[in-house]
Amino acid sequence: MEAGLSQEDGTEREIIIGENSQPERQSEAKQEEGHPHQHQSILGMTHAPPPIHDELSTGVFLNNRTMKQWVEKESNKDSFMKYARGLSITWAENNSYWQWLTQKDAPSDDAPVEMAELLKVCWLDVHGSFDVSNLSLGTTYEVAFVILMRSSGDGWQIPVNIRLTLPDGTKQEHKENLMEKPRGDWIEIKVGELSTTKHKEGEMEVSMFEHGGHWKSGLVVKGVLIRPKNRTVKHRVEKESKKNCFMIYARGLSITWAENNSYWQWLTQKDAPSDDAPVEMAELLDVCWLDVHDRFDVSKLSLGTTYEVAFVILMRSSGYGWQIPVNFRLTLPDGTKQEHKENLKEKPRGDWIEIKAGELSTTKHKEGEMEVSMFEHGGHWKSGLVVKGVLIRPKNMTVKDWVEKESKKNCFMIYARGLSITWAENNSYWQWLIEKDAPSDDAPVEMAELLNVCWLDVHGSFDVSKLSLGTTYEVAFVILMRSSGDGWQIPVNIQLTLPDGTKQEHTENLMEKPRGDWIEIKAGELSTTKHKEGEMEVSMFEHGGHWKSGLVVKGVLIRPKNMTVKHWVEKESKKNCFMIYARGVSITWAENNSYWQWLTQKDAPSDDAPVDMAELLNVCWLDVHGRFDVSKLSLGTTYEVAFVILMRSSGDGWQIPVNIQLTLPDGTKQEHKENLMEKPRGDWIGIKAGELSTSKHKEGEMEVSMFEHGGHWKRGLVVKGVLIRPKN
User: Fold this and answer.
1) CA–CA separation, 641 vs 553, rounded Å?
2) What do you get for the CA distance between the two ends of the chain, in Å?
3) Are residues 366 and 291 in the same domain?
4) Could you tell me the CATH number of the domain that includes residue 78?
5) In this predicted model, what pLDDT tens digit does every residue of 619-651 receive, in sequence order?
6) Would you say 113 and 83 are in contact if contact means Cβ atoms under 8 Å apart?
7) Is there a single domain that holds both residue 182 and residue 306?
8) Within a domain: residue 72?
9) Quick check: helix, strand or coil at residue 383?
10) pTM for this model (two decimals)
C-alpha cells in the first residue's frame, strides 16, 4: 500500500475480541448507564464481550474483522467502519479484476484487515448495507467511502456515481471525478448524510458504481466510514495541491481547566458560512496557567509534503494580561522541538489570526505522532483568547499560476514566501502577514512587511521554460507603501537579469509612490522567443545603510505584455513610429477598480486585436508615466512625444492643471502644465509632452510623465497611451 491512514477519529487504541478472551464483569451494573446505544446487540457480533467499558470506547472489531465499532470520545456517539470484505463488490473474487490486500488499518492494530484493490474492470459496482438501529439516536451521521487512488491508475475520465439510499427509500446521489483526486493517500469520498432523529430503524445502502463499460484500474477500497457529523477534526483536500489538510477544532484539543466555566466557556458556531453544522470553540475567561496542546498522527498527511502547523485564534478587544509572551512548540515524531515565543498583546483584535507553531516534512516523518502546544505557566492572569483549533496544511502556496483569459498565455505570481528576503525571519526587521490575495481565493498567502532595515535585499528566480513560447512578458514587484513608512529618500535599485546574463536595471523613488494601496514596480521584460529556457532573476535592493520601514511585499508578477506597444513605419518618411498603449505605461492605482477601469477595444477598425485603455473613475493622485528605449527610433530624426487621451463629458475636478514632463536620456527635462478642463470632450486628443532628436540621443531611455499630486479629486480621463512619431 502507498499509505495507511487510521480512520479512528478520536480513538487512542483498539481491542480485538478473540475466541479465548475472558470478559471482565466487575462493576458491570455501575457502568451500564454509560454504555453507548445498542451496545449489547453490537457486542453480540464479537467473538467475546469486551473487557471493560473504556476499552469498548477505543474500538472493537466485529464480524470477523469486516467491521469496526468505536465510541467517539467527546460525544459518546457510536462510529463504524465497514471494511471492504464486508461490502459487496462485483467480480471481487476474480483475481483478474480485483486483488485482496491484507494490512493493518492503523500502526497500533494487533491484526490486519482486508482491503480490495481494483486491477482492471469495465463494470464498477461496490455497495453495502447497514442497520441504522445500531447508530446513536438523535444524531446526524455522515457516510463516506475511504479509498486510495494509485499513481499508476487510469481510466477514470468518466465520473463514478455515488449514492446513499436511506431506510425510507430516499436517495442522495452525485458524481465524483476520481481522475482529479490526489494519488497515493487515503481520501474520503462523502456519500451523504443520515439523521437518526428521522431514521431510527431499517437499513441504509451505500453505493459507488460506473456501468459504462470503461476500463479502469488503480482504486483501493478500504471501506465505508459512518461517523457523527459534528466532529473535532475536519479533513479536506486542498484544491491546488491535491494534498490532505486538517483542522483540529478546540473540542479535540487538551485544554487545562476547559471544563471549568469559571476559566473557560465553549462557543458553538459554524467555522464557515457554507458549513452544514457548527463546531465548538473555546474562549478563555480568566486563567493564570495557560496550556493547550494536542497530538496528531502524521501518517494521515500526504507524503512528500512540507506542512505548516498553526493555532487559529482570536484576541478579544477586552482581553488583558498578555504582557508575558506565550510559548509555542511543535514536537516532531523523532522528538525534535521547534519552539518560539509570541507576544499576543501586539496581535490584532477581533479577527481570526494564525500563530504558526512550526513545520513538518512528510518526506522525513512518515509515521508517528507530532505534538503542538501553546502555553504560559508563569502565573499571570489573562483573558480574552478564543481558540478555534490547530490548522495543518501544506506549506503556504508560494507560486500561483493561471492562464490569461484573453491571450491564453501562462501567468505567474511568486508570493513573498517564495522569494529570498534578507533578515525576513528576524521579527525585529520583518513580519509575515497572512491574508487572501483575492476574495475568491480558497486559502491565504504570506506577505512580508518591512518593520525596519538598513540593508534591503529582495530577490527571486524563475524558470522561464514555464512561460508560454513566443511571448513578451513583463515582470513587476507588487508592493504596498504604509502611510507611516519612512527612510525612502534614497531610491531603490530594481534589476531583472535574463537567462543569458543581460541585465535590465533602473532605480525607483518609493518616497513618491502612493501610500496604502498595492502598486506594481516594473522590473523589466523578457521575450520567450529569445529566452526559451534557463532562469531569470529579479531583484529589489538598497545597500546604503539607510534605515527604512513601511514596505509590504506581496510578490513578483510575471504576465504577458498585453499588446502594449504598436510599431509601424510612416509611409511618407520611412521612419519608425510607436504607440505605447496604456497597459504598457505605469499608472498609479490602475489595478484598483475603485479608481480606474480597463476598457478593451480596437485602436483602429483595421486592427486584428483590441488593446487595453485606462479610464480614470476617481483619484486624488494622478500619476501616469512610461519609459522607452530611444535606440528603437530612426536615426537623424526629431520625434515628438504626446499622450493620447479622451476627456469624458461627465468628467470633473480638472481645475488644477496637470504636469506634463519628458525626461531625455541625458537627464534633461522638458516640462509644462496643461489645463485639461479647457480641452474638448468626447474625442481623442494629443497632449504634447516634448521632443527628442535622435541625432543627439541615439541610445538610453526617455521617460514621459503626466501627473498631479495636489490631492484634488478628478475623474473622466481616458488614457489610450503615448504616441512617438517623427515631427511632421
Assistant:
1) 34
2) 77
3) yes
4) 2.60.120.260
5) 999 999 999 999 889 889 999 999 999 999 999
6) yes
7) no
8) yes
9) strand
10) 0.41
